[in-house]
Structure formats: structure tokens, C-alpha cells
Amino acid sequence: MANDEALASLRWNVRDAAVEIIDQTLLPHTLHWLRLHTLDDYCHAISAMQVRGAPLIGITAAFGLAHALACDASDAALASARATLLATRPTAVNLRWALDVVAQAVAPLPPGQRAAAALDSAIALREAEIASCASIGDHGLAILQELARVLGCSAQRPLQVMTHCNAGRLATVHWGTALAPVYKAHAAGLPLHVWASETRPRNQGTHLTAWELQQAGVPCTVVADNSCGQLMRAGQVDCVIVGSDRTAANGDVCNKVGTYLKALAAADNGVPFYVALPASTVDWECACGAEIPIEERDAREVLWASGVDASGANQSVRLAAEPTRAANPAFDVTPARLVQGLITEHGVFAASPEGLARLRKALGAG
């Protein structure tokens, strides 16, 4: 997968001075680029999951704050826009991190200079995100190459990688986190195959991961969430790589709901379980996973399903009888003890307080 702007999931249109995103709620059946015009557009894009994935949420919010300051750069407007964007989704720490980066860059400046500085900051964050994910891919590639060597992988026996939810370019800007090593391995000619779990209830694995892997020519198979343990037990999975929406300082990882179950199955079957994330996804103020707020989404996502019928029309159907109730936690926490390693742009670190301390030192923060 070349480092091509056409593959980015969020682009800055210099000519029109506008942000354009892929509306991910329409995938995989329709690829539609959506232009964001107002602060409400940015907030809706995040809360309605037109953009999703911790890194992409953060970058979108950074551009949203820059847009708001172009309309009103006063202290009150800065505080109001930041609070409005921060309230869109509670779990992914990159949202707060990106808003803080932009706010800290513009706060000391006079109002007349803030809009340009905020835009420069958002663009820089976007470019840094692309570079960060490329580095994650390089470090993860080394893991996959060594695993393939030990297992004697070949075209007849490709490396079998499992992932959950979507942590590819649709969750970042380019490359992705968990899928970055896969894309790097594919480009290097390493034979591999990806098991993409469907990721109920929003089916990001089916709708997004499978779509982008197919676009890149990476062999993949969608499987029901509940089949993943059996695949591991049968020896059909060589490693699991997932992303993270927030990682605590002790190495606990919060990711899309269902991740914890895969980590348990991987531990029981001796399958290496890795988490790929940029350092911006670590919440250094969060001592452990129990402190991470878990987003509860609309029960309709569980009780209804959407898709395209035989005529090509979009349809929604109810799966459960009235008046069935549903709980819909969007994330779960995987304890650090189940994580083989954290693949970051700075290298691979143990999922432990000591490992995170080494990462923090690499960042120059300790």
C-alpha cells in the first residue's frame, strides 16, 4: 500500500480550504466523500461514526477546533468549541489529546493569529499521524516476519493473522495501527491471510476491515465473532493484532467490545496477542483499565441491522421482537496480563507499568 494521498481517510482540500472525510456509515456499499462545513458537522461526524477509530477521531476534532476558531477566535469560543467536541465520544483518549495540542498552540496567541495557527497545528497532527502509523507498521512487520520464519510460512501455508473491529486506514488517516503491519507485510511479499471478525453490533470488521483489505489486495475472510475461539483452538490463527482506543498506564487496553474475549481465547491457546497503538493513545493519568469510561451506545444498534437488499436498496430490519431491551457497551478492557506486547511508533513495549515507563522515556517525558 503506497503512501498515496488518495488512500487517506481524511484529506485537507487546500484549494477549497475544507476537510473531506469518507462517510464510513455508507461503507462497504457506497464510497462517499463528505465535506464538513460547520462545527456541528464535525461533531456529528464523530458522534454518528462517520469517522471512527481513536486516531482519526482526534485528527477530525483538531480540524473541527481549527474551523471553529476561523469563525470566532475569542477565549470563550475556544473553550466552548473544545468542550463541544470533547463531549462527542467519551472513550477514545486521542480526542482529548488532539484538542489539547491545538488549544495549547493557540491559547498564548492574540485572537487574530489563532485560526491560522490552529489549522497549521491540525495539519501537522495529520502528517504526524501518518508517519506514526507507518512506523507502527515497520515494528509490527518485524514481529510478523519472525513469526513467519519460525512457523515456516509459505504461499501454501500463509501466516494467519486475526484482527477485531477496524484499526486500518479508516481508523487513522493512512496505514492504520493493527493493520499497518499487515499492509507492510503484504508489500514485502510475506504470504499472509487475515481473519476479520464481524464486530457486532456495528459490524466494523465486515463493513470496514474486509473492505479496505480487499481494496489493498490482502487475502481476508470475515468470520462471526463467536467463531474466533474455535479458529484459535483449531490452530488456524498464528497471532492476533488489534488496536486500542485508550491504554492505561499499567498496560490495560480498552478497545472495541469483543476484544477481551479474543484475548482470553488467545491466552488459552498460546496465540500471541498484540495491541498496536500510537503513543497518543496512552492515557498516562489513567492508572488502570477500570478507570476508563465505557461508552454506552443506542440499543437500536443491537436490535436492528442495516444492509443492502437484492435490489441494491438500503434497508433496516428489526432483529428482536418488541419490546425487547438491549444493552450496548461499545468497548471492553483487556487486562495487561493477556497482552504479548504493545506495538508503537517507538518500538514494541511490554504491557506493564515498567514497559509503559520505558515508552514514556522514549517520548522524553520521563
Automatic annotation (TrEMBL):
EC number: 5.3.1.23
Site positions per UniProt: Transition state stabilizer: C165
GO biological process: L-methionine salvage from methylthioadenosine
Keyword check for RNA-binding: no
Single GO term (MF): S-methyl-5-thioribose-1-phosphate isomerase activity
Matching InterPro entries: IF-2B-related, IF-M1Pi, IF_2B-like_C, Initiation_fac_2B_a/b/d, M1Pi_N, NagB/RpiA_transferase-like
Biological or metabolic pathway of the protein: Amino-acid biosynthesis; L-methionine biosynthesis via salvage pathway; L-methionine from S-methyl-5-thio-alpha-D-ribose 1-phosphate: step 1/6
UniProt xrefs under Gene3D superfamilies: translation initiation factor eif-2b, domain 1, Translation initiation factor eif-2b, domain 2
UniProt KW keywords: Amino-acid biosynthesis, Isomerase, Methionine biosynthesis
Binding site for substrate: R52, G53, A54, R89, Q204, N255, K256
Catalytic reactions of this protein: 5-(methylsulfanyl)-alpha-D-ribose 1-phosphate = 5-(methylsulfanyl)-D-ribulose 1-phosphate; 5-deoxy-alpha-D-ribose 1-phosphate = 5-deoxy-D-ribulose 1-phosphate
PANTHER family found in the cross-reference section: METHYLTHIORIBOSE-1-PHOSPHATE ISOMERASE
UniProt xrefs under NCBIfam families: eIF-2B_rel, PRK05720.1, salvage_mtnA
General function of this protein: Catalyzes the interconversion of methylthioribose-1-phosphate (MTR-1-P) into methylthioribulose-1-phosphate (MTRu-1-P). Also catalyzes the interconversion of 5-deoxyribose 1-phosphate and 5-deoxyribulose 1-phosphate. Part of a bifunctional DHAP-shunt salvage pathway for SAM by-products.
Family membership: Belongs to the EIF-2B alpha/beta/delta subunits family. MtnA subfamily.
Protein name as catalogued: Methylthioribose-1-phosphate isomerase
Organism: Mangrovimicrobium sediminis
Gene: mtnA
